[in-house]
Amino acid sequence: SLPMPEEKDFRDYILIFPIPNMPPVYVYLSKPPVKLFEVDLYSNFAGRPRNGTHADHMPSAAAVKENLEKMYPKLKQEKLDNLSKNVAAIIIPAEVHQKLSATYGGRNSPAQIEQDAKDLRAAVDRDFNAIKPALKNYGATEEQLEKAKSKIHELNQEQGLYK
User: Source organism's superkingdom (predicted)?
Assistant: First the structure.
């Protein structure tokens, strides 16, 4: 339909030219909803229906940003914001994120951010272990959760956040 709606990402559309001399038509491609306990880069969850879940950064975006600021002090804020989205995340129930995540909202203090930024791997382990018992109450097995944590570490290593 024309014009293309503002609220969607341009990459979510394909452009169709139905017949000559007719304006193009934008066709929206819907993305599949996220799955509980799915792990991917935070940026890859953009535009996907959440259905009562949240994508929890592992480690927190604030810790990643502070870590990158120290490593690359000349990076612009916009670049830092983009890079902090290229961090592993796990899909968890919104309630677990809001009530138990160590870094949700106001619980992520400047002191905690500074500590986490110094050792991002340890921050992941601490944050993950804080929500792990609650995730078991939502049906996750120990094996699923350990596999998810391993994938979180793998993705963050691929991004160069730690070894």
Answer: Bacteria
DSSP 110: H
Burial code (b: 16+ CB inside 10 Å, e: under 16) for 112-127 equals: bbeebbeebeebbbbb
Taking the CA of residue 61 as centre, how many other CA atoms within 13 Å lie in the half-sphere pointing to its CB? 16
Per-residue pLDDT, 26: 75
Q: What's the residue count for the chain?
A: 163
Q: Which two tokens stand for residue 141?
A: 């097995």
Residue 39 CB neighbour total at 10 angstroms: 20
Instruction: Say whether the peptide bond before residue 33 is cis (omega within 30 degrees of 0).
Output: no
Give the pair of three-digit tokens for residue 132: 């792990």
Convert the pLDDT of each residue in 5-37 to its tens digit.
555 555 566 777 888 888 888 776 678 899 999
* Average pLDDT of the segment spanning 50-57: 96
